[in-house]
Specification:
With 583 residues, the protein is of the alpha/beta class. The protein is built from 22 helices and 19 strands. The protein folds into three domains: 179 residues, Thiamin diphosphate (ThDP)-binding fold, Pyr/PP domains (Rossmann fold); 155 residues, Rossmann fold (3-Layer(aba) Sandwich); 187 residues, Rossmann fold (3-Layer(aba) Sandwich), CATH 3.40.50. A six-stranded parallel beta sheet has the order 3-2-4-5-7-6, sandwiched between helices. A six-stranded parallel beta sheet has the order 15-14-16-17-19-18, with helices on both faces. It binds ligand OXT, adenosine-5'-diphosphate and magnesium ion.
Length: 583
């Protein structure tokens, strides 16, 4: 490390001993992060980490200060997804820690590497429950919600603590890590040279995990015997940054591929082998399915049921770094355990010079279904209805993304999410960031901010009005850092729809309904950004084009027909039904 522990003089040097160069916890944490290339912190200031944030900034770390820790945590988690380095979120104790915890748990669920660093109260008082300021046993609470949790009590252990946190976050299946730093640690002083020596630059934090040759051969044998093969590309494949190898495998095999939501763009959605528009057909009718960085969870109907056709009609090959993922829902006949880069390269090599193309009738079935669906959708995307419906509005945005394939799309909501996923084609890897495995609302502004900070690219955040509300205050953060983020709020006056009524006739509106005719654009104007109210696809197109060209923080309030959406978007089937409900 260049200049390890930042030096300070002991306040009142009275002897040769006290004139030694000293460092402290504050500086050792900063040095440990910098040594490991962790140069951005997302957080919220306050006791006991206020000075830490200031010092980190003074030492050249970029400190992005948020209005709420959950948004900072979401930012850190998606920074981890985009960079393969753990994103850092910094919070105060108890309530700040808890605010960050949702994001930490979400990161772990989604396999995004992040480290939540929280200041905490005095151990002695907390453990005796004597009522300290923001007292809470944070380590115990964090443990079940993340991959690993550590507490550092001595300045001399900071280097090891940070190293352990980094390794835990990025090695194997990535995930969230909690690092507990009690207030006392920050001001603990130690000899600067000893401090410097205590720091660890983590060597090879996510070592390659090479698949067993027998596993590769088994997978290729199964694939070769397929009559109706399918490849599913999940967000693990996007995370792996093995883009060329993945494209090589897909193209050499000639097999139709289905991208999961955040796997979109690994190969363009417009690629001839893309089966995104024939989703139900390929899931039901395929006979061999190769999963690359995708789990057979609820988003894939657990690999069974009517989505997947006749019971027993499927053989699964799965590539994943996590051995325990195999057979989690159904039998995996060919598990390939390893990192995706190594596994896909090994499969490609094993395929040799020539690989038999999938049967022509299967390719025909897929493309017919796909062409039908695309043709059905096309006229809906061109409609100019006022008030706008989802298709008209998304048709405009689809073209804007096509013209700017390197822009990053953030997307949340229900109808706003599900329809945008299908309508807006993606062209490059890791350009679509969304609600992920939990379908969680509130990722919007945190993801948008981190995407802009980490990549320097233009960001388009397409948000349901409810979804936006979870993190909307961060438009101030977007303006403060002058980020090239254009937020489009699909304002249909509510959750799913804005048309529900209170069946009692009372003065409270229905639980899914918001203030009618709200002007979210004014929120952005309040902080010096650009606000536009768009009522037609043309107005929407103009405003978003302008924002994406100028890079100015912009919020477009897109007025959507309140009756256009459906309950829970495409997943209304997950709502429990009461047989006793009065109509
Ligand atoms: O093959 P078939 O024929 O079946 O057709 C499919 C594709 O082939 C085809 N397709 C295409 N056709 C033509 N062209 C193209 N390009 C094309 N591409 C695809 O289209 C169909 C459908 O394709 P799709 O979408 O791929 O397939 P399908 O069957 O839908 O896939 C299944 C799933 C499960 C994989 C998919 O639906 C999916 O990924 N879903 C994710 C859903 C999700 O996560 N939703 C978010 C959670 S909903 C709910 O929980 C909400 N809440 C509660 C809440 C949450 N979540 N979090 C917190 C912290 N608190 C509360 C709330 C509050 S949503 C919500 C807010 C909602 O209100 P908003 O105002 O924000 O939003 P609006 O609804 O807009 O008002
Ligand atoms: P999706 O929601 O897109 O289907 P999931 O989050 O369910 O994706 O699955 C991602 C999978 O990718 C996880 O099982 C995770 O273990 C795996 N994964 C993440 N990174 C890698 C990697 N570098 N190599 C192999 N597998 C990975
Ligand atoms: Mg809505």
């Amino acid at each position: 490390m260049a200049d390890a522990a930042v030096k300070s003089k002991a306040p009142e040097p009275t002897s040769a001993e006290s004139e030694r160069e000293l460092t402290d916890g504050f500086h050792l944490i900063i040095d440990a992060l910098k040594l490991n290339g962790l140069n951005t912190i997302y957080g919220v200031s306050g006791i006991p980490i206020t000075d830490f944030g200031r010092m980190a900034q003074a030492e050249g770390i970029r400190v992005i200060s948020f209005r709420h820790e959950q948004n900072a945590g979401n930012a850190a988690s998606i920074a981890g997804f985009l960079t393969k380095k753990p994103g850092i979120c910094l919070t105060v104790s108890a309530p700040g820690f808890l605010n960050g915890l949702t994001a930490l748990a979400n990161a772990t669920t989604n396999c995004f590497p992040m480290i939540l660093i929280s200041g905490s109260s005095e151990r002695e008082i907390v453990d005796l429950q004597q009522g300290d300021y923001e007292e809470m046993d944070q380590l115990a609470i964090a443990k079940p919600l993340c991959k690993a949790a550590f507490r550092v009590l001595h300045a001399a252990d900071i280097g090891i603590g940070v190293a352990r946190a980094i390794r835990a976050a990025v090695s194997g299946r990535p995930g969230g890590v909690y690092l507990d730093l009690p207030a006392k640690l920050f001001s603990q002083v130690m000899d600067a040279e000893a401090g410097r020596k205590s720091l660890v630059k983590v060597i090879d934090p996510a070592p390659a995990q090479i698949p067993a040759p027998a596993a590769v051969k088994r997978a290729l044998d199964v694939l070769k015997g397929a009559k109706r093969p399918l490849i599913i590309l999940g967000k693990g494949a996007a995370y792996a940054q093995a883009d060329d190898a993945i494209r090589g495998l897909v193209e050499k095999s000639g097999i139709p591929f289905l991208p999961m939501s955040m796997g979109k763009g690994l190969l363009p959605d417009t690629h001839p082998q893309c089966a995104g528009a024939a989703r139900s057909t390929v899931l039901k009718d395929s006979d061999v399915v190769m999963l690359i960085g995708a789990r057979l969870n609820w988003l894939l109907s657990h690999g069974k049921g009517k989505t997947w056709g006749e019971p027993g009609s499927k053989k699964f090959i799965q590539i994943d770094i996590e051995p325990k993922e195999m057979d989690s829902n159904v039998e995996i006949v060919a598990p390939v355990v390893g990192d995706i880069g190594s596994c896909v390269s090994a499969l490609l090599e094993g395929m040799g010079g020539k690989w038999p193309a999938p049967p022509a009738d299967w390719i025909k079935t897929v493309s017919t279904r796909k062409d039908d669906n695309i043709a059905k959708m096309a006229p809906r995307l061109m409609n100019n209805n006022v008030p706008m419906d989802y298709h008209g509005a998304l048709g405009a945005l689809r073209t804007i993304v096509k013209e700017r394939p390197d822009a990053i799309l953030v997307n949340e909501g229900a109808n706003t999410l599900d329809l945008a996923r299908g309508i807006i084609d993606m062209y490059q890897p890791r350009k679509r960031l969304d609600v992920g495995t939990w379908g969680v609302m509130g990722i919007g502004m945190g993801f948008a901010i981190a995407a802009a900070i980490e990549t320097g690219k233009r960001v388009l955040a397409v948000e349901g009005d409810s979804a936006f509300g979870f993190s909307g205050m961060e438009v101030e953060t977007i303006c403060r850092y002058n980020l090239p983020v254009c937020v489009v709020v699909f304002n249909n006056n509510g959750i799913y729809r804005g048309t529900d009524v209170n069946p009692t006739g009372g003065s409270d509106v229905a639980p899914t309904v918001f203030v009618k005719g709200s002007r979210y654009d004014k929120m952005m104007e309040a902080f010096g950004g650009v606000g536009v109210n768009a009522t037609t696809p043309d107005e929407l197109r103009r405003a978003v084009n302008q924002a994406m060209d100028s890079g100015k923080p912009t919020l477009v309030n897109a007025v959507i027909d309140p009756s256009a959406g459906s309950e829970s978007g495409r997943i209304g089937n997950l709502n429990p039904q009461s047989v006793l409900r009065k109509k």
